[in-house]
Amino acid sequence: MKKKLNSLFLFLATIVMVGCTNVEDAPVTEKETAPQEVTTENTNQDSEKQDATPTVAEEPVAEETPTETSDDPFAGYKRIEVDGGDLSGYRGPNVVVDIGYGDREYWAFTNEYGQLVRVIADEIILQDDRNEPVLSSGRYYSDEAKVPGVESDVLDEGHIIADSLGGVSNAYNITPQDSTLNRHGDQAYLEDAIRKAGGATNFEAIITYPNIETQIPSHYQYTYTLRGNEIVDSFDNVNSDEVNESLGLTESEPSDSTTSTADGDISSVDTNGNGQVTIKEAEAAGYSMPITSDHWLYQYMDDRDGDGLVGE
Description:
Elements lengths: L1 H69 L7 E3 L14 E4 L8 E4 L5 E9 L30 E5 L14 E5 H5 L2 H11 L3 E9 L10 E8 L2 E8 L3 H7 L32 H6 L6 E2 L16 E2 L2
Parallel strand pairs: 1-2
Antiparallel strand pairs: 2-3, 3-4, 4-7, 5-6, 7-8, 8-9, 10-11
């Protein structure tokens, strides 16, 4: 009987010990499993953040690269030097040339066909006929470059930036331009406006052509600043008088011509035919200085200080 009871107690004790062992092991397993799941999720999140980081860093670099190149107006052009009085009508393709007389910096650009397509200048500085070697004609040079097309009877050797505004006379500043437009039309008006203002800033000329084979422009557009005001002059390379007449804009105009007056013919004084009379031209024609505002020549001369006297 005692042996049976001892066997029963031993059996029950074994069961209790096995049960306690299972109970103690269970929470340990859950505690170890839970952190493993959390660790796995954190690792995935960190990996995703690391993968995203390079993409964000590369974006601004790609955007800044073209900006630096576009700020350089000379990019893609070969800079060369050409004498201001070079009469050759040849222009090189894709080049940039300084066409400012003396220390002036006026930059002219050609396209791949050698056509003059753009001229820029931060500041237009007027000709100084008292301190610069200006000829009696009012020009720096006795002649202008023979760009193909200027041999025409109706086309002038037209300056993009006139002598009076400090421009030279080589092919990079000359285009075949309608004579009326150059001497009395829009081209002459804008040059006169800049002279009267004492110069200009932020100057840009855009020249366009009807095709790639000609050196005769079809259109000009000038943008410049006078006394803080931006001016835009845009016109075709045509006879402006004929255009105005065809539009019926000249019928009511007075009959007197800009090339003659009661006292004389301006062509006998205006030796370079640009519609303006310099002090040297007036003196060479026999007129004494100063020219007053009531003199017939005054309207064709540049009264820079606006006091009614020229050449005082």
